């Protein structure tokens, strides 16, 4: 891929992410994406053929960081370390990819009707692997016998707070845009809630459940 092509693709995808995040798929016009990207409108159709294809590419761009976050959950690892790393990785996604995260969450709230098939397959496989990792830890008595599916759903929803509830969070924190400290505090709080909630009975009795702060 030539440098010019790569540069144009990057500009268009960045602009499209911001426009889709602000206006949704139906409210976004390709001319506005082109204007934000600083390229002729014809370039959008040259590279992506349609708004639908461009939207699909924006969604697919969010799958890679999600899979990278899931890679830290390994059955052979200590659950406390693994869960903390996973939560931190998902919070980092919201911090580093705010526009794509909002587009992706918005699409899921609408039922994921425009998710590419490739995207669906990867997400289904990721979800199954994550749940099986939790189930393995439960079966070995490393974490409490909670429902692994609902535990994973809780982590997903909690780590999407800044993406899905931006308006509410801005009023609570008094800051229109989350700062690094806000994301760090979110990761620490969610981690503590999860680890305290899944600590084995013997550990809870001793009040010992170690994780980095």
Commentary on this structure:
The chain has helices at 3-27, 30-37, 41-48, 51-70, 79-96, 98-109, 117-139, 148-159, 161-164, 166-173, 180-198, 201-206. It is elongated and about 65 Å long. The chain folds into two domains: 1-49, Arc Repressor Mutant, subunit A (Orthogonal Bundle); 52-206, Tetracycline Repressor, domain 2 (Orthogonal Bundle). By secondary structure, the protein is an all-alpha fold. It starts with a helix and ends in a 7-residue tail after the last helix. The relative contact order is 0.11.
Draw up the topology in text:
Blueprint: H1 3-27, H2 30-37, H3 41-48, H4 51-70, H5 79-96, H6 98-109, H7 117-139, H8 148-159, H9 161-164, H10 166-173, H11 180-198, H12 201-206
Give me the Rg, rounded.
20 Å
Number of helices: 12
- What gross morphology would you assign? elongated
Q: CATH superfamily name of the largest domain?
A: Tetracycline Repressor, domain 2
| The level-1 CATH class of the largest domain | Mainly Alpha
Q: Helical percent range?
A: over 70%
Distance between the termini: 43 Å
Question: Which second-level CATH architecture of the largest domain applies?
Answer: Orthogonal Bundle
């Amino acid at each position: 891929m030539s440098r010019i092509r790569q540069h144009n693709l990057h500009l268009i995808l960045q602009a499209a992410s911001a426009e889709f995040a602000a206006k949704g798929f139906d409210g976004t016009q390709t001319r506005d994406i082109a204007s934000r990207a600083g390229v002729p409108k014809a370039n959008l159709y040259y590279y992506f053929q349609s708004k639908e294809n461009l939207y699909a590419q924006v969604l697919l761009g969010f799958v890679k960081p999600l899979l990278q976050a899931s890679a830290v959950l390994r059955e052979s690892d200590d659950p406390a370390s693994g869960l903390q790393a996973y939560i931190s990785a998902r919070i980092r996604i919201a911090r580093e990819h705010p526009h794509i995260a909002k587009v992706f969450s918005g699409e899921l709230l609408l039922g994921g009707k425009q998710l590419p098939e490739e995207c669906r397959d990867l997400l289904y496989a990721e979800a199954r692997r994550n749940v099986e990792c939790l189930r393995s830890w439960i079966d070995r008595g490393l974490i409490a016998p909670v429902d692994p599916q609902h535990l994973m759903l809780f982590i997903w929803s909690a780590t999407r707070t800044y993406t899905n509830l931006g308006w509410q969070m801005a009023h609570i924190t008094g800051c229109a845009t989350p700062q690094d400290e806000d994301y760090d505090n979110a990761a620490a709080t969610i981690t503590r809630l999860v680890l305290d909630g899944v600590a084995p009975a013997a550990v809870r009795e001793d009040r010992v459940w170690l994780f980095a702060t």
